[in-house]
Design goal:
Two copies of one chain form a homodimer. By secondary structure, the first copy, chain A, is α+β, with helices and mostly antiparallel strands. Chain A is built from nine helices and nine strands. The first copy, chain A, has one domain: Glutaredoxin (3-Layer(aba) Sandwich). In chain A, strands 2-1-5-6 form a four-stranded mixed beta sheet, sandwiched between helices. In chain A, β1, α1 and β2 form a beta-alpha-beta unit. The interface between A and B is large, with 70 and 70 residues.
């Protein structure tokens, strides 16, 4: 069974949701037959690349909230993160364009190490006070710290076309599915769950998706090779 | 849209089917949004690794056919291959265990170059007279000839565990779908086509699968970040 998870590195609920989903998956009876793929979704694609700002300042301007509301929201997110064993800095977190991070996540997927890359990006963003966005050297340091090869990381970051089409394709698919918020979980393209749900709900969704996993409808049957040899076509 | 194609390198109809499917895909209006993945299926997993034999000899013994029937079948397969512009040697082709080839195909998938690897394996098997099975050096030569890095190829072939679980997972999925012959085409896990169909049928299947591509059913909606910010959870 394939689970596709649309996320953004900028998204606190995606960080929480990853832990809660993984907790549910760890207890799932068929976990060894579940393949998880993280897909790209940018919450703020128009934010200028190469810039960074305090998240409270940015969120008040972007969403018209008071500083108190944003600060309070961060505190509540911090408490929810801590409740599932995640570190979370409730002040000083920065904000920015995540496109290059999504390109790195696609590269890491090709290496079969997407989970490690995403964990490293989340930690750097949500659990470390050092500014994270708009600074390529910081991004290189985070990826290398997670065990990725520095030359490989730089090759991806230095070429803006590398994996750009993959990021766009993920976003186009999200649009087709009507996704307007993340995290967004899709099970074998048959069922979907939106949001950082409790592990119990993810457990239920995994079970339902597994029990109902799709069996394709045959459109046509023809010349094939099987255990008894190949059927010969009429030339 | 994802198209998964179960194949074996030992399977003449898979070789034909790849060309016919690709011809249909080349004319498909949404080809740029179709992702093709080749999955593993072994027609003869019990054939001893490291051995090779004449295909006519093997097929007569395995399927109880007369030499004339097998020779005639190869001639008809050759004619069908030639009709779509493929070379096909109608005598002297060999036969063997394809597990290592499937491991290489999974490695090539990670590199985003699965099509090139599969084309090279098919050509070496069906269009070149030099023996192909049971000979690691020949396999290295074929992969390197297709532009793959020799060190990388040898690393995969020298470690029998590399990608072995991926091959088994593909075969388990095929079993779940009730696949008993290849090629077998699955469109977004919703529709399936068996066999080396004519390009017109593949074109119809692509259109139907595209028009009916799945829209996941929402199981739950919850705390998420969207264009208007993040909904704050009740801590």
């Amino acid at each position: 069974m394939q689970v596709e998870i649309w996320t953004d590195v900028n998204c606190p609920f995606c960080y929480l949701g990853k832990k809660r989903f993984n907790d549910a998956l760890a207890d799932f009876a068929h976990a060894d037959q579940v393949q998880v793929v993280h897909r790209s979704f940018e919450l703020d694609p128009d934010f200028p690349a190469g810039e960074s700002g305090d998240v409270v300042d940015k969120l008040t301007k972007k969403y018209g909230r008071t500083v108190e509301q944003v600060v309070d929201g961060e505190r509540q997110l911090g408490a929810a993160a801590n409740a599932v064993g995640l570190d979370y800095i409730t002040s000083g977190r920065d904000y920015g364009n995540s496109f290059d991070m999504h390109r790195l996540l696609h590269w890491a997927k090709d290496l079969g190490r997407q989970e490690e890359m995403l964990d490293a990006l989340y930690l750097a963003n949500f659990a470390e006070t050092e500014p994270f966005f708009g600074d390529t050297e910081r991004l290189v340091k985070v990826a290398v710290g997670a065990g990725f090869d520095e030359t490989g990381v730089r090759e991806v970051l230095d070429d803006p076309q590398r994996y750009a089409a993959d990021v766009r394709a993920d976003e186009k698919q999200a649009q087709e599915f009507g996704v307007n918020g993340v995290p967004f979980y899709v099970f074998d393209r048959k069922y979907a769950v939106s949001g950082a749900q409790p592990p119990e709900l993810f457990a239920q969704a995994l079970t339902q998706a597994w029990d109902d996993r799709p069996q394709p409808t045959m459109l046509a049957d023809g010349d094939a090779c099987g255990p008894d040899g190949c059927e010969v076509p009429q030339a």
